[in-house]
Prior knowledge:
There is one protein chain. By secondary structure, the protein is of the alpha/beta class. The protein is built from 13 helices and 28 strands. The strands form seven sheets. Strands 13, 14, 15, 18, 21, 22 and 23 form a seven-stranded mixed beta sheet that branches. α1 crosses α5 (175-205) and α9 (357-370) crosses α10. It is globular, with a radius of gyration of 25 Å.
Amino acid sequence: MLIGIDVGGTHTDAVAVESGNVVASGKVPTEHDDLLSSVLGALEIVLDAVLPEDVTRLNLSTTLSTNAIVEGRTDEVGVIVSSGPGIDPYNFQTGKYYFPVSGSIDHRGEEIAPVVAGEVAEAFDTCVAAGISAYAAVGKFSTRNPAHEESIASALAEKSDVISLGHRFSGQLDFPRRIATAYYNSAVWRMYNNFADAVEAGVRAKGITAPVNILKADGGTMPLERSRELPVESILSGPAASVMGVLAQQRVDADTDAPHDDILILDIGGTTTDIALLVADTPLVEKDGIAVGSFPTLVRALKTRSIGIGGDSELRYSAGALRVGPKRRGACIAAGGESPALMDALIYCGHAAFGDVDASRQGIETFAAECDMEPLELAESVINLAVETISRAVHDFIAEVNSTPVYTIREMLHGNKLTPAQVSIMGGPAESFQQLLTDALALPVHTVPQFAVANAIGAAMTRPTFELELFADTEAQTLFIPVMGEKRAVSARYTLTDAVLDAKEALIEYFRQRGLAVDVDDIQVTEKQSFNMVGDYGTVGKNIRVKCQITPGVEI
């Protein structure tokens, strides 16, 4: 029995899934000041129909890290960077407490100049005086040799609660992205870990002993234990749940293994609409990593877009024009709110019917009078505005995908123009928008089965995933796997074939240590390269790089 919980901006949903079928579901309002109560409230509804001992896995999608960053509720972070010559590290400054220090490692991992301990100590003293206990240490070529990051971490260990080391996030060489990723990881670490402590205690108190996993932005899951170290990877797990929810229900309903047409996904919630694409049953992935605020990061994520249109989007009249969203001022009037929202307009025009319909209609009529408009004219106008906003965002999203390099989770797309053949919509207001979007997009629009809890289904059925990169230098006779912190000696005769086998073995071992079985056939090698290194008298060795992953997917 699988349980999935999705903490959305408006509601928190939970489902219990067995053999691909939903056997229980629950929905409660999301309490943003107390997300734990929302998680446990939705879970309690499901456990009324499911025995805790029958649960084999619980997957959670949470907005906590995303909201903390957006709302500015993160910790100050002391960021110490070692860049070496050739660039100005201040070009990549994140946060107020940012300290470039001397020291340099070259592209092969050889130390050119050591980190100056006095500079690190001075930066540390400044942070301690400011009450900072969260840090990030990032070296330019730390993925080839993490010695400087580890040296800085050792110097800070005494009075720090967390130190995010840049080489642990990805083997990709991108110094600015690595700085931002380490910074955000430490910025949300304390808040996230307090939440993780409470979730684990709450779930165990309900009698569930099964593993707890967190949905990642790339459409996979990671064990709660690892998420404590890398909370930044939980950013944008909500939109990922949307994509996996569509994929999960396609797999359950599929009569054949043949791939489906390209599908546009719209998840219309109470606060936002998330947009994504499935290409032959495969989600698109951001090529390098998502941007958080104005900073690009190394956080691998499905390619999505979110706009401020949802069922509870507030209605306003400003500067002689109607406005819909992007803010939400609580629930719509039909659901007990005090201010008219988009859903109230849908109810007035007959596209929806729930809750207190009379109060909802009265709210639209009162608002129309304030705007000196007829109620039906106003309701139709705001609905058209919302649909036009969604339609415009869809076309912009598709244009962006077709104009920039993107990846599927299997391979890179080479010049293929994506033209969705249909639209799958989910979320509470989905049925109300089905015909409206059919007309606006000129595409068949289908409401996803179990549309109101599709995100939770996606969370429940998403399987664990992980990605690693292996680097080997046969002249130096060293092997390094950055995200696992593994470094060891290899023979001068080490080959690309050896590296592929070692990378796969490391991936299997990573999951074995976490009680998860992985078949070697589940591992995909996404990149393998071997370059000759030339010295004064010919080839002196090989530089080898292998990248492999357990790809995101769903389990039936």
